[in-house]
Specification:
CATH topology: Growth Hormone, Chain: A
Helix content: over 70%
Distance between the termini: 26 Å
Structural class: mainly alpha
Low-confidence stretches: 466-473
Length: 473
């Protein structure tokens, strides 16, 4: 059976799984910090600490899930069953996480720790196998880049849904009670996510198998991962990439609520009155559309420049454009949008290539070691992503606390400076660090063609040997 081509139907079916995941993930990015501080009712400092402390368990949970998935064997494959089995629990816990119980501050903090940790565990249980699935539905590195492109267009569609629907649903369902609004909004999003996960399960197929002679060993799997230099580099870059995204993106709602505020904006000589919430929604949705445009060009850029140079160059550009926000006053709305478009476009190719490069590191590991541990590699990659999310969210919460932020009141000059620094300078630094790390990444396009050819020959040879061994004498 050929493994280098898959149908359009399967590409779309696989990709909508990332739409489902992003109905949760983008809600975390854009709204969970302000939900916990301004609606749920815990301090910014406590929120920042919680985001980071919960990653201690993730450091164990994520690789463990990858190793479990690698050792799973069912009639549906290694990875697909988890998408089927855990879609509904994931949706239920998502609703619980955005439910505000009527208990005291201490009880709320305990409830937040428990529900957030459970949600992150279930995110891992579904998304480690989901990410690993991309590495086994085709063996062709270029086709995987195309699949990744489909995946991230679908992911950004999920992002658009969140950006438009969450503020609208919170207002409509809550009718002034944001706690009720967030809870009911998550009910709607959870049902939609469950349906999309089921579509991914029924429309995909696992084709790339581990070598027949492969023996499984936790110690050897972890040793191979630690010696996989390309994975270590893209994993490190991912941490800084997501730290950059989370500081900046989570700060946008604070930026418009307290710094930009309601105001008149002059466009082509005409003045229009905009609310801060209307500008915020337009800002993030327009940015997502531009990001999709950037992601659609990811394959072209990677063919011309190579995956490494495209990833590093666009991540650096995102950092530089982000830093420019420091120089904007609250009335420079047009310039805010222009810079936001540049940042958003730059992040499109970065997000697409990130996961394609992870699957490349799985091929590299198989070539070097003779063993394939796609689940472990993707779970460790997901941990890198979640660590970046936690560091970014924690950093923003701590920065807000350090600059004296208080929810639901007019901010002081000092706290406004903190918000401006967070969305610009502090957010730009990790992007530049991540770009610098990726300049050392060794898997060029030419090298991946060589690896693919060598693995294909090795697998073919192994299959022929197995056929000869099994033939009657």
């Amino acid at each position: 059976m050929t493994t280098d081509r898959i149908s359009l139907k399967e590409k779309i079916g696989y990709s909508v799984g990332d739409t489902a995941s992003n109905l949760f993930f983008q809600t975390f990015i854009f709204f969970i910090t302000i939900f916990y501080t301004d609606v749920f009712g815990i301090s910014a400092k406590a929120v920042g600490t919680m985001f980071l402390v919960t990653k201690i368990w993730d450091a164990v949970n994520d690789p463990m899930m990858g190793m479990i998935a690698d050792r799973t064997n069912t009639r549906w494959g290694k990875f697909r069953p988890y998408i089927l089995w855990f879609a509904i629990p994931f949706g239920v816990v998502g609703i619980m996480t955005f439910t505000t119980p009527n208990i005291g501050p201490g009880g709320k903090l305990v409830y937040a720790y428990i529900t957030y940790t459970l949600l992150m565990m279930l995110y891992t249980i579904i998304n480690v196998p989901y990410s690993a699935l991309m590495g086994v539905i085709t063996s062709n590195a270029r086709v995987r880049t195309v699949v990744s492109q489909f995946r991230f267009v679908a992911a950004f569609i999920g992002q658009l849904i969140i950006q438009y629907s969450v503020p609208a649903m919170v207002a409509k369902f809550g009718k002034g009670d944001d706690a009720v609004g967030y809870q009911l909004a998550m009910v709607v999003l959870s049902v939609l996510a469950i349906i999309l996960f089921f579509i991914t399960f029924v429309s995909t197929k696992e084709r790339v198998k581990p070598p027949e002679e492969q023996k499984t060993s936790l110690k050897i799997d972890l040793r191979d991962l630690g010696r996989n230099k390309p994975w270590l580099l893209i994993g490190g870059a991912t941490v800084f990439q997501l730290t950059h995204i989370l500081i900046r993106t989570s700060c946008i709602i604070f930026y418009f609520t307290y710094y930009v505020q309601d105001q008149q904006v002059t466009i082509f000589g005409n003045s229009y009155q905009f609310s801060y919430l209307g500008m915020f929604t337009t800002f993030i949705m327009a940015g997502s559309i531009v990001t999709i445009l950037g992601s659609l060009l990811a394959s072209w850029f990677s063919n011309v420049l190579g995956k490494r140079n495209t990833y590093a160059g666009f991540l650096a550009a995102s950092g530089i454009f982000t830093a420019g926000f420091f120089f904007l006053g609250p009335h420079n709305v047009i310039l805010m949008f222009l810079l936001h478009f540049l940042v958003s476009f730059s992040l499109g190719p970065v997000s697409v290539l990130q996961w394609a490069m992870y699957t490349d590191t799985a091929d590299y590991s198989e070539l070097m070691t003779g063993r394939r541990a796609t689940g472990l590699i993707m779970s460790a990659s997901l941990f890198a992503l979640k660590l970046g999310v936690a560091l970014g969210a924690s950093a923003l919460a701590w920065l807000l606390a350090a600059y004296g932020y208080q929810p639901n009141v007019e901010q002081t000059a000092t706290s406004l400076t903190g918000i401006r620094m967070a969305i610009s300078v502090y957010a730009a630094i990790p992007a530049l660090i991540g770009a610098a790390i990726m300049l050392l990444y060794p898997l060029t396009n030419k090298r991946m063609v060589q690896i693919e050819e060598e693995l294909t020959a090795r697998r073919k040879g192994g299959a022929e040997e197995a056929a000869i061994a099994g033939a009657p004498e």
